[in-house]
Design brief:
Elements (H helix, E strand, L loop, with lengths): L1 H27 L8 H7 L1 H14 L4 H11 L9 E4 L4 E5 L11 H11 L9 H19 L6 H16 L7 H28 L3 H4 L3
Antiparallel strand pairs: 1-2
Helix pairs in contact: 2-3, 2-8, 3-6, 4-8, 6-7, 7-8
Length: 212
Amino acid sequence: MIEKFKHLCIFFSGLIVLVPVILAGCATTPPKDSSNICEIFYEKDDWYDAAAAARDKWGAPIHVPMAMMYQESSFRHDALPPRDYVFFGLIPWGRVSSAYGYSQAKTPTWADYVRETGNSWADREDFEDAIDFMGWFIYKSQKVNGVSKWDAYAQYLNYHEGWGGYRRKSYNAKPWLKKVAAKVKARSLRYATQLKTCEEDLQKGWFMKLFT
């Protein structure tokens, strides 16, 4: 009897350790098909609700921050910028910026977001917080620089260069960045077209989906 009890204890102790690890792995892996926004939301069924909440809160159409997020992190929760190197590029020395997470938000900008929204528990590794941050940034870009929330090209330039850099047109000295912004725009339009085919289904609650 004592031996059986010991085995049960070991078994349940193992579950306590493994289950959070398994769940964390499932929750944080990038979508299998990032080329289709419908497939992303079907696989990550809580992501649509988070993206829709950000849209309703900040007025940012879902396809714009999603296209920007793909460009920034490929939907990896722990994405980091490239390493910086010193001594003729031979010795790694930190990162080129403080950007981190799904949205690749830089630490000072993230701090501004937390302060302005009061979202003190926000985490850059959490999709819901990251998409809300991007919605906030898109909203601010419209307020500060008059950029349409639907203009993925200009919104991405704001996101990359900052509001001051965009006003100074710093992107004009970066032809490569304009090409990247064009890619973001193209992806956003593709996502918008795809979303029209599945959003009605995505809007159904889990209970209604049982009968469809």
